[in-house]
Amino acid sequence: MNRRRARIRKPLPPEQGLIILNGSKEKLVTSAPIPAWDLYQGACIPLLREHFTDQPARRARTRILSAKHGLLHPDDTITTYDQRLTTGEQAHALRTKTVSAQLDAEFADAPELRHLLILVDPLYFLALERVADHRERLDSVNASMVPSPWSWLTDGLTVLTTWGWA
């Protein structure tokens, strides 16, 4: 059997990649604000946190989609809360209230952005609909949508491997 090795290419520079994943209901209980990266304890966040332990530049290219706060940078400080997206109407409200402007800012602030990995549940994906409004950039953005953050070990890690981040 002839096995083909995956070509190892030069890793994607951090400024060319962006990962968006949704938060989780499992959170540390705290009344003091802590980084979002540390607050979320469920779904794929602990796995990604472990994966990027020694890679702060790549960790900084991660955003966490919160049902309460919209897109969070890993270092944004927040306290424990209990709010989930359970309906399309809630996803639409989140998109309208915060996420659309946050996505516009992400695209404006990252002119070298070429690859996008989205690891979110379907309702959270509705809140990210604004990504499609950046058609002028989408020709150069590799959007890989994984329908469940539990797919991290298969689909998400596969995409990061193609980026040279795994």
Can you offer a commentary on this structure?
There is one protein chain. The chain has a single domain (15-163), classed as Rossmann fold, CATH 3.40.50. The protein is globular and about 45 Å long. The protein is of the alpha/beta class. It is 34% helix and 17% strand. It contains 7 helices and 7 strands, in the order E-E-H-H-H-E-E-E-H-E-H-H-E-H. The strands form 2 sheets. Strands 4-3-1-6-7 form a 5-stranded mixed sheet. A two-stranded antiparallel ribbon has the order 2-5. The longest helix is centred in the middle third of the chain and has 22 residues, at 88-109.
Question: Layout of SSEs?
Answer:
Blueprint: E1 17-22, E2 34-35, H1 36-39, H2 45-51, H3 56-59, E3 62-66, E4 70-72, E5 77-78, H4 88-109, E6 115-119, H5 122-127, H6 135-138, E7 142-146, H7 155-163
Parallel strand pairs: 1-3, 1-6, 6-7
Antiparallel strand pairs: 2-5, 3-4
Uncertain segments: 1-8
Mean pLDDT: 87
Q: What is the helix tally? A: 7
At CATH level 3, the topology is: Rossmann fold
Second CATH tier, the architecture: 3-Layer(aba) Sandwich
Q: What's the gist of this structure?
A:
The chain has 166 residues and is α/β, with parallel strands linked by helices.
List keywords for this structure.
166 residues; alpha/beta; Rossmann fold; five-stranded mixed β-sheet; two-stranded antiparallel ribbon; 7 helices; 7 strands; disordered N terminus
